[in-house]
Amino acid sequence: MELLRQVPLLAEFPEEQMRLLAFSAENVTYRDGEVLFIAGERADAGLVVASGEVLLEGADEERKELGTFGPGSLIGETALLVETRRPARAVAVGPTEVIRIRRALFKRMLQEFPDIASRLFESRAARFRATAGALARVGTVLEQLEREHVAFRESRRRAGPQDGDGDES
């Protein structure tokens, strides 16, 4: 249960509901190199790494390493909330155990305990606001860069070609 409490999405669960979640979830063991899921597969559960590590690889042929996740990491958070597909391939690195929390179980917990749903909604809303704010700042910087690029190109156009200087942009 302490492992589940390390997961930010689950940290707000009261003790009794956390016990129920831990009891109802499924423990799954994987061998080194065993595939947990593939990109594009229907995602019906989130996985909390209990021991070992899980490597996420890109969906392309190169299978670019996206990251390695150890104990306490939640893989597939979105799958707990909505129907979705796996965006990457997951492979066990060494002997690995995960706690599989099915979306149906998670949604039932939210329905039966509306206070958890309310706290979850508030934390997701806060994350959304923070992300929207960060994206707005990125947008402002990109707009400024675009204005500077246009001004630079215009000044080069007005100055005309210099010796050995072609307009390559």
Architecture overview:
There is one protein chain. The protein is of the alpha+beta class. It is 44% helix and 27% strand. The protein has helices spanning 2-5, 15-24, 77-81, 103-112, 114-159; strands spanning 26-30, 35-37, 42-43, 45-57, 65-69, 74-75, 84-85, 89-102. The strands form two sheets. Strands 1, 2, 4, 5, 6 and 8 form a six-stranded antiparallel beta sheet that branches. The longest helix has 46 residues, at 114-159. The radius of gyration is 23 Å and the shape is extended. The mean pLDDT is 87.
Biggest sheet layout: 6 strands, antiparallel
- Report strand %: 25-35%
CA radius of gyration is 23 Å
Question: What is the succession of H and E elements?
Answer: HHEEEEEEHEEHH
Query: Low-confidence runs (pLDDT<50, min 5 residues)?
Result: none
Mean pLDDT: 87
Derived structural class: alpha+beta
Helical content class: 40-55%
How far apart are the first and last residues' alpha carbons, in Å? 58 Å
Which oligomeric form is depicted? Answer: single chain
Number of strands: 8
Categorize the overall geometry: extended
So how many helices? 5
Sequence-ordered SSE layout with sheet pairings:
Layout: H1 2-5, H2 15-24, E1 26-30, E2 35-37, E3 42-43, E4 45-57, E5 65-69, E6 74-75, H3 77-81, E7 84-85, E8 89-102, H4 103-112, H5 114-159
Antiparallel strand pairs: 1-8, 2-8, 3-7, 4-5, 4-6, 4-8
Helix pairs in contact: 4-5
